[in-house]
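JOB MANIFEST
job_type = single_chain_structure
chain_count = 1
residues = 82
[input]
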Amino acid sequence: MAIIVNLDVMMAKRKISLGDLAEKMNITTSNLSILKTGKAKAIRFTTLNNICRILDCTPGDILEFRPDPPAQELPPDAQAAQ
């Protein structure tokens, strides 16, 4: 399962820089950059709420779910060998 962070897309649509958004949110640019680049392991609802409020968007505009591709099924004889 992959959660894709589209913060850069919304920032471009709203014509706001990383520094400006970080300043409005009262967080460091480096912390916001971690989220923007998809390196964050989690996000607090309060942070997501602030982003959405400032960018006038919804969580679905920022976060996208992409399911894993279906696993390739093994033939029955290969499954038994495992």
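[summary]
The chain has one domain: 2-66.
Residues 74 and 80 are 10 Å apart (CA to CA).
exit_status = 0
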